[in-house]
Every structure is written in C-alpha cells, then in structure tokens.
Amino acid sequence: MNEWIFDIWTIITASTVACTSAILGSFLVLRKKAMVGDAISHSVLPGIVLAYIVSESRASWVMLIGAAVFGVLTNIIIEFLNKKAKMNADASIGITFTWLFAIGVILLAYFTEGGIDLDQECVLFGEISMINLDKVLVDGNLYLGPYAFWFIFPVFIIVLAFVVFGFKGLKITSFNEDYAASLGIRNGFWNYALMSLVSLSTVMSFESVGAILVVGFLVIPPASAYLLTKRLIPMIVLGCVFGILSSIIGFYFAKSFNLSISGCIVCATGIIFLVNLIYSIIRDRSRKNISIAQ
Amino acid sequence: MSELIDFISFKDPGVLTILIGALAVSFASAIIGTFTYLRKKALVGDAVSHSVLPGICFAFILSGEKDPLLLILGAFLSGWISVFFIDFIVSRSKIKADSAISITLSLFFAFGAVLLSFIQNSDNANQSGINHFLFGKAAAITDADLKLFIGVLIIVGIITLLFFKKFTTICFNEDYAKSIGWNVKWIDFVMSSLTVLVIASGIQTVGVVLMAALLITPPGAAGFWTHSIRKLIFLGLIFATISTVLGTFVSYVRPNMPTGPWIIFFLSIIAILSVLFSPKGILRRLVLNRENKSKIRNENLLKTAYYLTYERELPDFSRSEIVSKRSYETLELEKGLKSLKNKGFLLENSGRFYLSESGKTEAKRIVRLHRLWELYLTNKMNFKSDHIHGIAETIEHIITPEIEAKLLAELDYPDKDPHDSVIP
Amino acid sequence: MENKSIDVHNITVSYSGAPVLWDVDFELPTGVLAGIIGPNGSGKTTLLKTIMNIVKPVSGNVKVFDSNIDKVRNRIAYVPQRESVDWQFPISVMEVVLMGRYSGKNLFKRTTKADKEIAREALESVRMLEFKDRQISELSGGQQQRVFIARALAQKADLYFMDEPFAGVDMATEKTILEILLKLKDEGKTVLLVHHDLRTVREFFDYTILLNTRLVAAGKTAEVLTEENLNSAYGARLTLLEEVGKEIKKKDFPLREKDFDDK
Ligand SMILES: Nc1ncnc2c1ncn2[C@@H]1O[C@H](COP(=O)(O)OP(=O)(O)O)[C@@H](O)[C@H]1O
Ligand SMILES: [Mg+2]
Asked: Parallel, antiparallel, or unpaired for β C159-162 and C76-79?
C-alpha cells in the first residue's frame, strides 16, 4: 500500500483530535478554566494505567471509562479543596493533579517491574506516528484507516453533538452564571458535563499526543481564535481550522526533518498563536491611535 | 527491618548523597514556594517547570555534553523567558492568566519535545540521561549535583532573608507596597528569578510535572495550620523533610521505584491529613458542630429549668414538665439531662430534677444573654420586637464573657429587656 | 399586606463564616418601584441573589408572588451588576438580549422568530437596536448597561431585580433607564433595584429598603429616609455585631437552631 495513505490517515487522526480539543477548549478558555484542563490531562494517568492493566490494550473503552472517572474525580477534588477546605484555586489545582500524576507514575513503575509495555515517555509525549501499527483492514484490500482513528472519531461525534445541542446552555453558563441561575438553569450540570467530556477527549488524545501536549491542543488554537473573532461560533470554527492547519504543517515538518510529530504540531499551533498575538497587538494599538486622534 | 537500619546508618554512601540532595531541592522549593503560593501564582511554577525543557535541550545541543551547570543555565534562561512570556500575553492581550499559563506551558514543552527528538536522532553518545529531566531521577544525583543543590539552597535562603520584609509585604498587601513607593516589579523579578532558579536546578531530581508539587504542596498543606508566614515556611520545611526521607527510603528499598513521585506522594498525603485533621480541617469542623449542638441543647435545657424554677416557681420538676415547656426529642433530652447532671448543674431526686447553685448561676447567665441580645437588637439594630426572639435564641449561645461585658457597657447596664422581663 | 410581590422572612446569609446579612425581614407590594440603599459591601447584591435563590440563606425563607421562587421564575427578570461578567466574551448585543428568552425548559430548542422579535423590541426600547451586531466590548459603559436592561425587558416579567443599573452610566442612559422604570411601573410591574443616589430615590421610588448587614428600615420612602435611619445605616459601625460574627466564624456556629417550638 502507498505510504501517502498512511500519512493522510495520520493527519486525519491528528485533525480529529485537534477539532475535538478546540471545541471543548473554547469553553475552557472562556470560562477561565484552562488550567483545569491541564490538571485533568495529567491526573487521568492513574486511570489509564489501571485500565490498561485490566484490559491489556491501549485503545479500549475500559481505558476511556477509567480515565473519565479520574477526570471527574479531579474536578471533584479541586472543587472540594477550593470550596469546602477553602484553599485558593491555584493551589487546589496544583496539589490535586500532581498528587494523582505521582500516583500514576508510581503505578506505572510498579507494573513496569512486572513488565508491561506502557512507556513513560509515551505518557508525556504520545507518538502519533505509532498509530498506524494498529491498522483496521476490511476485506483484505480496502484500508479503512487506523484503529486509533475509529477510537477517536465517536468521541468527536459525541462532543460535537453535545456542543450543537447544548450550545445555548454552554453559552449562557459560560457568559453569566448568576443570570443563568436566575433563569433556573443549572450551572453545575453544565460544568460537570463539560469537564466529563474534557476528560474523555483528553484520554483519547493522550495516545496520540501525550498528556502535556493535549493541553496545547485544548488551549492554544481556541486562544488564537479568541484574539481574532468577536463571536462564539466563529471562534470555535476558527479554533478547529487552526488545529487542522497545525496538524498538516506540523506533520510534514516533522516528517521532513525526522522530529517528534506531536511536538511539531503543537509548535505549529504556537506559531499561529504568535502571529495572531502580534497581529492583535498591532491592531489594538492602531485602533487606540485612531480613537485618540478623534 | 534490616533495610531500615541500613538506610538510617547510610551503609550505602550513595544514599546520603541522594537524601541530602533531595532535601536541599525540596527545602529551596518549600521556601520560595511559600511566597508564590501566597502571591496566588502557584501555577506559574508549574508552567516554568515545563518550560525549562527547551533550554536544557539547547544547552545540550550546543555543548554536546551533559555538563550540569550548562544545562541549568539553559533551563534558567528558558524558564525566565516563559515567565516573561506569560506576563506579556496577559498584559498585552485580552487573554486571561489561566490560558496564558496553559499556552506557555504546552508550547515550551512541545518545543522541548521537538528538540529532544532531534537529540535522539542525532546519535549522540551522551544523550542518555537527558530524559531524566522528564521524570526525574534522584538516584542519579552526583557529588557535583549535590554541591550545586546546596549552593542554590544557600542563595535562596540568603536572598529570602534579605528580602523577607519586601516579599511578605507584596504577598499580603501589594497596594500598600506600591503606595510607599516600593518597586513591586523589581521585587517580583527577584522572587520569580529565585523560583526559576530552584526549578531549573531541581528538575532532574523529581521531573517536570512533579516539580510544581514541591513548590505548591508544602505551603498548601501548611496553610491549614497557620497564617503566619514564618510558621508557613517552617512547617513547609518539616513536611518537605518528612516526605523526602520517606520517599528516598521507598526507592532505596525498591530500587525500581522512582524517588520523586514517592516524595510527592507522601507530601500529598500530608496535605490530605492536614485537610482532614488540622485545626481548620474538616474533622475539626465536625467536632465543633457536635460541640455546638450539645452546647445549644444543654443551654436550652437550662433555660427551661430557669423558667420552671423562677417563673412557675416549682421546687423541682419532672421530664414531662420540661417537655410541656419546650419540646425535646426523647434521646436529646436524656443526653442533655445526663450531661447537665455530670456538670453538676442539675440534681436528680427520684425522677424529679432541680437546679444546683452553680446551675442557677449558669441558667441566669444564659437568660441574661438572651435578653441582653434582644435589647441590643431593638436598641441598636432597629429590630421590631416581634422579630427578635428567634435570633436571640441563637446568639445567646455564642456570646463570650468579653462580648457580654461590652454588651452591658454599650447598653448602659439595663435591667429590663424589650418585653419588660427582668434581666437576671 | 395585600398583593405581596416579595416576602422575605428572617433570612440570614453567610458566604463562609460570619453573616453578611442578619435576619433580614421585609415585604414588598406589587406595582411599586423599590430601592435598596446601603454602603458598599452592605449585602445589597447578596440580598437580591438570595431572593432569587442564587445564594442559599442559612436560615429563613423567601416567597415571591406567594410561592417558591422556582415556580415563578418565568415571572422574574434580573439585571446583574455590570462588573459581574467578562465583557470581552465573544458575543453580540443581539445574542445577549436573546438570552432573556432562555429558560430551564427551552434550552435545547431553537430560538424562535417570536423570540427574535421580542428581543428587537427590547433593544429598540433602550435605543440600542442600531448596535445589535456589535460585540459587547465595543460599547460604552452606559450602552452595556442598556443591553443588560434590554435583556431583562425581553424576559417579559412581572418583577424586575436590577443591581446598580445606574452605576457608571452617562446622562442619556440615566434618563432612558429612568423612563423605562416609570413605564414598567405604569404597566403594573414591580421593580426592586440597588441604587445610590438618594435624590432620585426620594423623587421616584415608592419604597426603600435601607440595608447595612442588617435591615435598618424598610417601607415607604419618606418614612425610611429619615436622618436617623441614614445615620444608623451609614454611620458608626456596629462593632459588637462584627465581634459576634467573628465568633460565629471561629466556632463554625449553626446560625439557626432546628425549628423548635417554644410553648
Ligand atoms: N462570593 C462571595 N464569597 C465570599 N464573600 C462574599 C461573596 N460575595 C460577597 N461577599 C462579601 O459579602 C459582603 C456583601 O457583599 P455584597 O452583597 O456584594 O455587597 P454590596 O452589593 O452591598 O456592595 C461583602 O463583605 C463581600 O465581601
Ligand atoms: Mg453589589
């Protein structure tokens, strides 16, 4: 089979991850919860390790559930420390995710002694070039893409459906919680629904981009879009576009120079961000000048 | 057991190096972490520890060897740039701090990952060990590292002492610091530099992700015990010592176990114990709740007894007479009676109760507080007299003797309450 | 009182520890313009939020139109304090006003034509229709306030809660808002708003609630705004009350015993 088909599938997979993350990340950015996304992406580790031990495979629904449970747990612990134990928000986040991550690393070390093949570095970086090893082949000849893609795709659909159908709820609770409450809308429900999906998507992305870079996917493209747009839907769409663009640029760059693919993709999102940042600074400055001139 | 003795007696001299090295790192982190914690910048530490990776890789690529000093210099520089970058994003755009931190953290780390893959492809014989920076490897602490860690600790200690007053002031009262003309930016610069220095030097011991915990968790846990900054630091150091020793011990016994994560694990356990058992903790609050409840019940019972004794003028009274004045659940009533008897306030004679002398004094005190507070509500807070009973019913249990004295003075030592009852 | 719109019964509210509202108790009839007056931090916002059950009281209860607030949410509208939202949020004026048509029930349904028409009318009435496609950060403070008011108007409610609608607005906006308030009153609606300017209160408001952690006075404006009441609201602090508050916080004391019945 032609090599370029693998390349295309790798890009498609990365783009799916990027879009899922950009959609959810837009709301994290607007709710000022970006660091909670960061925390979740680290603290799902023990869930992933445990699920891996139970199911003995990397891409499985057991893993999704294991990680989602830890994702929601992270949220609960952070809220508990913050609201009940009255610790400040930053510290609650920091303590929670480092603790769970430490447990994850310890579990990993424990089971590695027993010889499992879940690599520490893979946890941090992921490796998207590996995804083609688990091919999905139908009828001998017809190649239907890598297993990882078909693992990620349903999550993308779920996220998309959630945002399309829950758009009004997400919008109003992100913009003005008190007002939403006065209308009888339950902020807690929307918060936890969003955070559960962030956990879910983090876990499925973890395989391809690793725990830390998924934060880049969650936050950098939406933040770049935030600098450019004045509406929510364009922000989400543009976030997805930036994610896809970065996937393509990053992939080919990495391939030509034989570098880490996921690293290059996130660097590409970073470059797009920098361009937007500089553009927005210049734009705002000239706008200020105009208004002063008037 | 023999392992424990071996460990304590440092039979293996390597253990001593590791232990002292890890202690130096965690001390320096706990000290500077206290200030960043109070300044509500705990997560900036997390961002910096991710952001040192590209610096380390660059230093390695340029020099082609693993010279610890050079790597730390690289780490320091890129850590510093990341702090600047976060500030730049927040001050120059509408992006908020949390997003700016996430962006910086993942971007720098991704760049580091790219450089790392470059190094791994380049076949450099020295490359092994570069990835200690990811997960940390305390076991690899050399004598040269040790000197460095101690050096950093001394620098952090001295500068913190010199700047102690300034650091404390900008943590607690930044506006005041500005108003007396201090250069807050410069003080912040010093504080951030120390943070970056500690992270840059310590990262190979505990690793990228967990470095943040050494900075955040000790003051976070100590915060449950005290508010004083000196005590925060002191307790943080104690917590750091305990967890470092335990963590080092675990990985001594099981060499495959990573030291850093175990240190963080124990540190987190201390934090959890603090959440549960400290004076501000959850458990203490539960105990307080119970105490409050039984205090309220006992005092209400005494008031009922006061009423029966002085207003109905009964020499003694039965359970049913108590309940006829105010309804109590049977179980609560029994508990209250028992506890009042134990305190000597209430005496029992074949099923009938009467107040002892001390019981009378105590009962009068509560009735007095109730009526004083009612008076305060009507006189000072303009409450209508039909609304005051309910709240006075609660507050009478709270007023301490000091507040009572002030209350009396403010109300000019009254003798009648708003309902014209005598204040005993 | 006949036709009560709000009945606040002995509410005590605390965020963590010391109460910010002590045993507040008052009633409000329908069809009036009522002001909540008090110094900064005296609990005005908290009182509004507690009436709407956004903040839960530690004791006491509130009835709106003689029933639980959750049953009459479609009859109330809220204008939050302008500082409470992020004005950089990527959203247009029209979208904000359309939120007035959201409810717990229609959240998953599409916005209808009728809703859009109502939102347009609301914008028209605050003279902001021409700005309907602007992003909200591109408005002046007064214009932002008007958008918030339009959103509340789009709710077509009977009872309006407004938190400092006059704060930081220009003269034109102040005039527009005042007109709207009087018009609402003419239509028989009730408005409860937090306000600072005593002159407008005296001139236009029927009822006044004077607040400073505790209720200083509530009732007809002329009766409430006496020298003595104002002094006790804005004057000397009640140090004893603060000390009791601290003690409550320290001991984590329950603020109201379980309902007892004293015979
Ligand atoms: N979410 C909160 N958590 C803790 N304390 C709060 C919160 N909101 C308000 N407070 C405190 O409650 C008091 C009353 O606040 P608020 O109702 O906003 O006053 P006002 O609107 O009259 O200025 C203030 O001392 C304020 O600091
Ligand atoms: Mg307010």
From this structure: parallel
Q: Are strands C207-212 and C33-37 parallel, antiparallel or unpaired?
A: parallel
Task: Say how far apart CA A203 and CA A188 lie, in whole Å.
Answer: 23
Answer whether residue B271 is part of any domain: yes
Ligand 1 atom at shortest distance from the alpha carbon of C43? 17
Residues of B whose CB is below 8 A from C214: 381, 383
Separation of alpha carbons C91 and A231, rounded Å: 5
Check CB contact under 8 Å for B324 and C263: yes
Which residues of chain A have a CB within 8 Å of the CB of B113?
124-125, 213, 260, 262-263, 266
* Rounded CA separation A42/A104 (Å): 9
Query: How would you classify residue A26: left for phi > 0, otherwise alpha for psi between -120 and 50, otherwise beta?
Result: alpha
How many domains are contained in chain B? 3
Nearest to B207 by CA among B102, B53, B83: B53
Domain boundary among B355, B375, B395: B355
**Contact between chains at C22 and B395 (C-beta distance less than 8 A):** no
Evaluated on CA atoms B225, B229, B235, B240, the torsion sign reads positive
Q: Judge whether A60 is closer than 8 Å to chain C, CB to CB.
A: no
For residue B108, which of B168, B181, B44 has the smallest C-alpha distance?
B44
CA proximity to C58, closest of C68, C67, C66, C50: C50
The CATH number of whichever domain residue A58 belongs to comes to: 1.10.3470.10
Do C53 and C70 contact (CB within 8 A), yes or no?
A: yes
Collapsing DSSP to helix, strand or coil, A106 comes out as: helix
- Shared domain for B288 and B259, answered yes or no, is no
Same structural domain, B317 and B406: no
- 10 Å CB burial of residue A271 (0-12, 13-18, 19+) is middle
Inside any domain, residue B417? no
Asked if residue B266 belongs to a domain, the reply is yes
Q: Tens place of pLDDT for every residue, chain C, 263 residues?
A: 668 899 998 898 988 778 899 889 899 999 999 999 999 889 999 999 999 999 999 888 899 999 999 999 999 999 999 989 999 999 999 999 999 999 888 888 888 999 999 999 999 999 999 999 999 999 999 999 999 999 999 999 999 999 999 988 899 999 999 999 999 999 999 999 999 888 888 888 999 999 988 888 899 999 988 888 888 888 766 777 778 888 877 777 776 544 444 43
Residue A136 in domain? no
Compute CA distances C75 → A165, A186, B321, C63, whole Å. 26, 18, 50, 13
Q: Which residues surround ligand 2, an ion (CB under 5 A)?
A: C 45
Whole-angstrom distance between the N-terminal and C-terminal Cα of chain C? 28
Q: Is C50 in the pocket of ligand 1 (CB under 6 A)?
A: no
Q: Is the residue at B424 inside a domain?
A: no
CATH number of the domain that B322 lies in?
1.10.10.10
Q: How far apart are CA C191 and CA C31, in angstroms?
A: 8
Structural domain for B387, as ranges = 360-410
Among B246, B280, B314, where does a domain finish?
B280
HSE, side-chain direction, 13 A CA sphere, residue A22: 31
Residue with the smallest CA separation from ligand 1 atom 7 is C15
A61-112, pLDDT tens digit by residue?
A: 777 777 778 888 998 999 999 888 888 889 999 999 999 999 988 888 888 7
- What is the Å distance from ligand 2's center to C41 Cα? 7
> Rounded distance, CA C173 to CA C124, Å?
13
How close, in Å, is residue A70 to chain B by CA atoms?
Answer: 17
ipTM of the complex: 0.92
The CATH number of the domain where B44 resides is what?
Answer: 1.10.3470.10
Distance CA B48, CA B83 (A): 7
List of chain C residues whose C-beta atoms are within 8 Å of the C-beta of residue B398: 244, 247-248, 251, 253
Range of the domain at A148: 3-126+142-293
